[in-house]
């Protein structure tokens, strides 16, 4: 019976704000990660870095070799739940620095995205804040007023980097809600698409799933090739293209729970 | 120094002044834009089927922001004494949008109006104050009596 009393006391103690304690602990873990890993790292030689990482792991070593026959380098991102969006934005903006052909189409899509989102019911006042920061960066890239180093610095500046991630999350949410009839097939449970977006897409630091990638790549008309590196038997690192059949403009490496950027040979 | 958080808080403040929602107000403290004082007036929300015992109360709160705002929610606390199923003894609030359902598209105005509707529409299944939650479910008259005592206290504070 003593135990039961003890339990009851623990329950009373739970009235001390547990939420605050959990959030505090979460904050500490995040701090440790952010001190150790930059938001976006430097380009690293792919084979060298992955071979070292998987020296005692035959399956992953084999896959690293396969990967290195197709890709020369890797750029790591911080595992903070935003890695897909941040990796996507960095890789595509980096491409736009040199690939002027893609710029016009992308600019047209993103510049009218704000009105599309307002029409869907997003609050104009806060939306504008993210939109303006995002477009400022896009326009700097278009005018040629941005170097690779400046882009890198910008993506490692937490404020700006996160604003870009937020805006991509909103575009993703908008696409999912606009085409909810289709995307509802991919989500579990009885949630409405709006509820799913509020819980899994719009909040920062929520990890991305296939559905996020499909929606974002479709919304922006940017092809993404994801290379899946997992424990599967195949000696090859399997590729998935989003949207299916598109020409990839961005290459990402997926290892369970995390996305990094890949550079082709 | 202007950071995204500070710039955004200036915008939030401007909007709150230009387009204030009914029954809430808030402003940064004199020397620190990262700490705000706010007031929520309890009033009857027309589309709810019941009255709220919080009617006429003027409840004071503090809102503390970090440089990560609006990517992370601020910490919001009642300074006025509260008796509510979702408010802890220290005044902090158990509300999903201030925790795991926070979205960067919320601003101060949205936070305050959400808390305002929480007052009249508590969620007794996720209690921060188990006594208040129990009375709310099982003895509404006693619950209302305790809340009215807070409302009267709020005039004095």
TrEMBL record, chain A:
Q: Which CDD domains match?
A: OTUB1 (cd22763)
Q: Which InterPro entries match?
A: OTU_dom, Otubain, Papain-like_cys_pep_sf, Peptidase_C65_otubain, Peptidase_C65_otubain_sub1, Peptidase_C65_otubain_sub2
Q: What is its EC number?
A: 3.4.19.12
Broadest EC class? hydrolase
Which BP terms in the Gene Ontology apply to this protein? protein K48-linked deubiquitination; proteolysis
Query: Start and end of every OTU domain?
Result: 72-265
Which residues does UniProt call coiled coil? none
One GO term describing the cellular component: nucleus
Catalytic positions are: 80, 83 (nucleophile), 258
Keywords tagged on the record = Hydrolase, Protease, Thiol protease, Ubl conjugation pathway
Gene3D superfamilies attached here?
Peptidase C65 Otubain, subdomain 1 (3.30.200.60), Peptidase C65 Otubain, subdomain 2 (1.20.1300.20)
Q: Which family does it belong to?
A: Belongs to the peptidase C65 family.
Task: Return the protein name.
Answer: Ubiquitin thioesterase
Q: Which organism is it from?
A: Frankliniella fusca
From TrEMBL, chain B:
Sequence ranges assigned to domain UBC core in this UniProt record: 4-156
Q: At the top level of its lineage, which domain of life is listed? A: Eukaryota
First-tier enzyme category under EC: transferase
- Tell me which Gene3D superfamilies the record gives: Ubiquitin Conjugating Enzyme
Catalytic residues identified in the record:
94
Molecular-function GO terms, alphabetical? ATP binding; ubiquitin conjugating enzyme activity
Q: Does the keyword Transcription apply?
A: no
Record-listed E.C. numbers: 2.3.2.23
Q: Which GO BP terms sit in this record?
A: DNA repair
Looking up PROSITE patterns in the UniProt record yields:
UBC_1, UBC_2
**InterPro entries noted in UniProt:** Ub_conjugating_enzyme (IPR050113), UBC (IPR000608), UBQ-conjugating_AS (IPR023313), UBQ-conjugating_enzyme/RWD (IPR016135)
State the UniProt keywords alphabetically.
ATP-binding, Nucleotide-binding, Transferase, Ubl conjugation pathway
- Is Transferase one of the keywords? yes
Q: Of which family is this protein a member?
A: Belongs to the ubiquitin-conjugating enzyme family.
Name of the molecule in the record:
E2 ubiquitin-conjugating enzyme
